[in-house]
Write a structure and sequence with these properties.
Length: 362
């Protein structure tokens, strides 16, 4: 079961509407590097990386392709060995950011290939804790929407079967955000989970002031209230509020999450499959969290994270973001607030090459 080739395709996928959060950057599309790892077992592992707006997508593609010589000829069954080899390959350039993105894309594709070659889902290869996971909708409720628009949109997600929704906060004045959150809570009622994402936009002092006001609305979590590198600021917010703090989407590898742990920066860890270092490293983060009774969630990569969220007992909500759904053959169905963990080999999702060709930019 050895790697014979690594291929990439770059696509751009338009978003239904522009997004905007407290970072102030608006995006109308995502650029994706689709990664294909071919094997002599007759299966191909698949994964992808993305950038908002397609910015610097060529950097990610170059990083991925630069690692091809290190994996061709390797046995896909030895995920840990290959991950360690790539880690050493990247030592000179460092182990955060673009380098880890490249490693992650290859590692995730290798796990997909391994599952396909063995005829097993990745969830079962990792142990499998459940056959369906609770899901929240993260597809909208952006900072640009008015309270009335937010209320109507949130009610629509509940009508589609979601039992959790996430909205963005980040207005200049606390009262503005309080009004917006109140509108959504009224629209969805008391039994639907509500998450608020500050998108790294506040100081610790502002986050505490707002967070205290938002506790009246029974939030499931308050996400990234401060800059992700401000562990101590996040810890201040976590200590000051009853609402759980969720963070970690920008962390690289188990070492980033270990730093979060040491600072007490978050109550819920949100690992991003691209930034964390792929499936191999996601597993380590999940186990580190479990050893300290910390819940985990995914950040984006909905399809590729679904098996992982089904594999661990400390996994909580799956983030549903439909940005790349049109690239896949398989479709996700929400039933009673949950999504079934696929029992198909590998990660359970395969690219629809007709759709890929429609969005290909080179």
């Amino acid at each position: 079961m050895r790697v014979t080739d690594l291929r990439t395709i770059v696509v751009e996928v338009p978003l239904p509407r522009p997004t905007r959060n407290s970072s102030g950057v608006s995006n109308d599309r995502v650029g994706c590097v689709l990664v294909f790892v071919d094997t002599d077992a007759g299966v191909t592992g698949e994964s992808f990386l993305f950038t908002l707006g397609g910015r610097r997508i060529e950097v990610l593609e170059t990083m991925v392709r630069s690692l091809k010589p290190a994996i061709v000829g390797e046995d896909v069954r030895y995920a840990e060995r290959i991950w360690e080899r790539l880690w050493k390959e990247l030592y000179f350039l460092g182990h955060k950011g673009v380098t880890v993105f490249g490693l992650a894309a290859i590692d995730t594709a290798l796990w997909d290939a391994k599952g396909k070659a063995l005829g097993q889902s990745v969830a079962h290869l990792l142990g499998a804790a459940r056959d369906r996971v609770p899901v929240y909708c993260s597809a909208g409720l952006w900072l640009s929407a008015t309270p009335d628009e937010l209320a109507a949109e949130a009610a629509g997600y509940v009508a589609e079967g979601f039992r959790g929704v996430k909205m963005r906060v980040g207005k200049t004045h606390v009262e503005e955000d309080v009004e917006r959150v109140a509108a959504v809570r009224r629209a969805i009622g008391p039994d639907v989970s509500l998450m608020c994402d500050a998108s790294r936009g506040f100081t610790a002092d502002h986050a505490i002031r707002l967070g205290r006001r938002l506790e009246d609305f029974d939030l499931t979590w308050f996400e990234e209230p401060v800059a992700p590198y401000d562990y101590h600021g996040s810890a201040r917010v976590a200590a000051a509020l009853d609402t759980p703090i969720a963070s970690g989407e920008t962390e690289a590898t188990r070492y980033g999450f270990r730093s979060m742990l040491e600072a007490g920066a978050a109550d819920i860890w949100m690992a991003d499959l691209g930034r964390v270092g792929g499936v191999t490293e996601f597993v380590k983060v999940a186990h580190l969290a479990a050893a300290h009774d910390i819940a985990i969630s995914n950040h984006l990569f909905t399809e590729q994270s679904l098996c992982l969220m089904g594999a661990f007992g400390n996994a909580t909500w799956l983030e549903f973001m439909p940005w790349t759904a049109r690239l896949y053959r398989e479709r996700i169905a929400v039933e009673d607030g949950h999504i079934a963990v696929p029992d198909r080999p590998g990660l359970g999702f395969t690219f629809d090459m007709d759709a890929v060709d429609r969005h290909r930019i080179r």
